[in-house]
Specification:
Four copies of one chain form a homotetramer. Chain A is mostly helical. Helices cover 81% and strands 0% of the residues of chain A. The relative contact order of chain A is 0.12. Chains A, B, C, D: GO terms for molecular function: DNA binding; metal ion binding.
C-alpha cells in the first residue's frame, strides 16, 4: 500500500474541489474579521456551521474519488483489505 | 433583540480565537496544496477532519462566550425567550 | 447545584418526548430483526441514521426545556456559572 | 444490484451486533424512565449522547461488513459503480 502517491483527480473534479477550498479559506478569513469587529456571536456561529457543511461536501467528494480509484483498484488486484480498513478509519473520523 | 452588535470578546479570548482561526486558514491552504500535488486522499481527508474538530472547538468557545454574555444578560432582564430560541437554533446547526 | 432533581416536564412535552422515545425503541428492535434476517446492509444503515436523527430531535427538545428551566432560574438567582459550564459540556458531547 | 438480500453476517459478528442493539434498546427504555421520573436533564442528555455513540459503533461495523462483502464482490465483478454511489449516499447520512 503506497501512501504518498495518489490517483490524480480528474481536472474538472480537482478544479471544483480547489474552488470550494478557496471559498472556504475566504469564509475562514471572513470569520476572523467578524471576530475582530465584535459581530454578533450567533452570526459568527452560523458562518462556522456553513464552513463545516462545505468541508463535509469536499470530504465526501474526495472520499468518493478515493473509493472509485484506489479502493477499487486495490480490491480488483486482490489487495482490498488494508485499503478498506483505512477507509473505515477515516470515515470514523468524520462520523464522531 | 439587537442582532448586529455583540459583547466584545475579552482580549485574551479574542486573541486565542483569532490564532485558532488563522491556523485553520493555514490548514485550508495546506489542503489546497495537497489536492494540487495529488497527495494521498486519506491524508487529505484526515486533515479535513482535523479542521472540522478545530472549528468545533472555536464554535464551542464562541457559544460559551455568547451564553455567559448576551444570553445571561437577556435572561437577567427578563427577556430570555428569543435569545434562548436563537441559541437552540444555532446549536441545531452544529448537531445535524 | 442540585443534580438529581429536575424541572418537571410540562405534561404535553413529556408525553411528546416519551412517544418519540417509544418509537425509537421500536426502531431499535426493528433493526435487530433486520440484522437477524440478513436484510440489506444499506437499509439497516439508513434505519440507524434515522434513529440518530430522531435522538437528535429528542436531545434538542430536552436541551431547550433545560435552558428555559434550570439554566434560566440559575442565572436569575445569580448562580449561572456552573450551570452554563455544564450546559456547554453536554453540548460538546452532541457536537463531536 | 439486488437490494433485499444481503451477505449473512458471520455468526460472531451478528451476535456482537445484536448484543449491542439489545443494550441500546435497554438504554432507550432507561431514558424513558428518566423522563417519567423527572431526572436531571443533563443526565438524560448524557445518556442520549452515549446511545448515539453506541449507534455510531454499530453503524461502522455494519458499514465495514458491507464494504468487505457486497461492495468488494460488486467491484470484483466489474459492477462497482452503483454500489459505491449507494455507499457514499449512506455515509452522507451519517456525516451530516
Amino acid at each position: 500500500m503506497e501512501k504518498l502517491s495518489s490517483d490524480r483527480f480528474p481536472n474538472d473534479t480537482e478544479e471544483k474541489i480547489l474552488q470550494r477550498l478557496r471559498k472556504i479559506e475566504g469564509q475562514v478569513r471572513g470569520i476572523q474579521k467578524m471576530v475582530e469587529n465584535d459581530r454578533y456571536c450567533i452570526d459568527i456561529l452560523t458562518q462556522i456551521a456553513a464552513i463545516q457543511a462545505a468541508l463535509d461536501k469536499v470530504g465526501l467528494s474526495i472520499l468518493k474519488h478515493h473509493t472509485y480509484g484506489c479502493v477499487t483498484r486495490a480490491i480488483q488486484s486482490g489487495e482490498g483489505d488494508p485499503v478498506i480498513d483505512e477507509l473505515m478509519d477515516v470515515i470514523k473520523l468524520f462520523i464522531k
